[in-house]
């Protein structure tokens, strides 16, 4: 089934359509995904600003996140870029962040 997804522009970025969000899952664990909260986004953006945030592939993340998706157990976060979830296992950010 195809879903049309309305991109609703927000000051901070894009909002995912609830129908789309309901069918997305983590490519590694198959857990459902939900939108990351503001606290999680702030934590990630602080690590990006400090130059310490890397994805599973070991690549540095340099662009701030306006939105992200997370697993219910909070172990993985997937970036959303311009309203598009990046659901590649190597693009995941593992939590908790190492200090």
In words, what does this structure look like?
- It is a single chain.
- Helix content is 19%, strand content 19%.
- Strands 3, 4, 5, 6 and 7 form a five-stranded antiparallel sheet that branches.
- The protein has helices at residues 18-23, 38-50, and strands at 8-9, 14-15, 34-35, 68-70, 76-81, 84-85, 93-94.
- It contains two helices and seven strands, in the order ββαβαββββ.
- The chain has one domain (8-94).
- The protein is of the alpha+beta class.
- The termini are far apart.
- Mean pLDDT is 85; it is low at 1-13.
Number of helices: 2
Helicity range:
10-25%
**Could you list the spans in which at least 5 consecutive residues all have pLDDT below 50?**
1-13
What overall geometry do the principal axes of the alpha carbons give? globular
Query: Which structural class fits the helix and strand makeup?
Result: alpha+beta
pLDDT averaged residue by residue: 85
Describe the biggest sheet?
Answer: 5 strands, antiparallel
The H/E string reads: EEHEHEEEE
Pfam family, one: Trm112p
């Amino acid at each position: 089934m195809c879903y049309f997804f309305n991109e609703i522009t927000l000051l901070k970025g894009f909002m995912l359509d609830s129908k789309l969000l309901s069918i997305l899952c983590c490519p590694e664990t198959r857990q459902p995904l939900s939108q990351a909260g503001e606290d999680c986004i702030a934590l990630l953006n602080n690590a990006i600003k400090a130059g310490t945030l890397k994805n599973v592939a070991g690549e540095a993340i340099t662009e701030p996140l306006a939105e992200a998706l997370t697993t219910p157990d909070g172990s993985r976060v997937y970036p959303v870029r311009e309203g598009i979830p990046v659901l590649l296992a190597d693009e995941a950010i593992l939590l908790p962040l190492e200090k």
